[in-house]
Design goal:
Elements lengths: L1 H24 L6 H33 L13 H12 L7 H23 L3 H30 L9
Helix pairs in contact: 1-2, 1-3, 2-5, 3-4, 4-5
Length: 161
């Protein structure tokens, strides 16, 4: 379990770095402590979202099936989370957003198999649950990101002449 946590934290930090560093390049002169704090906070949020992906997909699968599936749910394993780390490393904008998206689709397809086996859904139903969970979490995080940027954007005042 500790290997999964480390991999999720690494994926979260990598994903955050891919999103934050290009923004920081446009704002030279930011204090290093603010950069490190922003990167750490964003990395922890991204890691938490990654950790919630299987749990959210499992919750959706429970809503879809008529009888609740037995078991504790779907969890990350080192084999399932390793492609997620690769996708997060490739999150840097210059390395290709399309490749990054394709890797996330691959990770989701990898999650669909264990979810189908654990929940009793077919593979396509499980893939749908994984996709809806991933898109829902992604949209929620993007909304929070945009809100934080809007709140923290420097306000320009008009000079009084």
């Amino acid at each position: 379990m500790s290997a999964v946590v480390v991999l999720l934290l690494f994926a979260g930090l990598s994903e955050a770095a891919g999103r934050i560093l290009p923004l920081l390049a446009r704002r030279p002169g930011m204090p290093p402590t603010l950069v490190a704090g922003s990167l750490l906070a964003a990395g922890l949020v991204e890691a938490a979202v990654f950790a919630l992906w299987p749990l959210t997909a499992w919750s959706l699968a429970e809503l879809v099936v008529s009888s609740p599936p037995p078991g504790d749910g779907l969890e990350w394993t080192p084999g399932l989370v390793a492609p997620l780390v690769l996708a997060a490393v490739l999150a840097f904008p210059l390395l290709g957003p399309l490749l990054h998206l394709l890797l996330f689709v691959g990770v989701g397809a990898g999650l669909a198999g264990p979810l189908a086996a654990a929940s009793g859904l077919g593979w396509w139903g499980a893939a749908g649950c994984v996709a809806v969970a991933g898109v829902g979490l992604g949209v929620a995080v993007e909304a929070v990101r945009r809100l934080v940027v809007r709140i923290s954007a420097p306000r320009t005042t008009e000079p009084i002449v």
